[in-house]
Amino acid sequence: MTTVLLAIGPWQIAVIAVLILLMFGGKKIPELMRGLGKGVSEFKKGKDGEKEKKQDD
Fold this sequence. Notes:
There is one protein chain. By secondary structure, the protein is an all-alpha fold. The chain has one domain. It is built from three helices and no strands. It has helices spanning 2-6, 10-24, 28-56.
């Protein structure tokens, strides 16, 4: 069952990309990606901060 979910080919990725483009439009996608990048960097900072706290204890 899980192998079916992970088997995404190039056609499926292309269809997903086209759907996202149609839903959000070309001008909105960079803003969405910028927000996603900021969220990922904040998550990494928080994760690294937790590691430092554990090492200090």
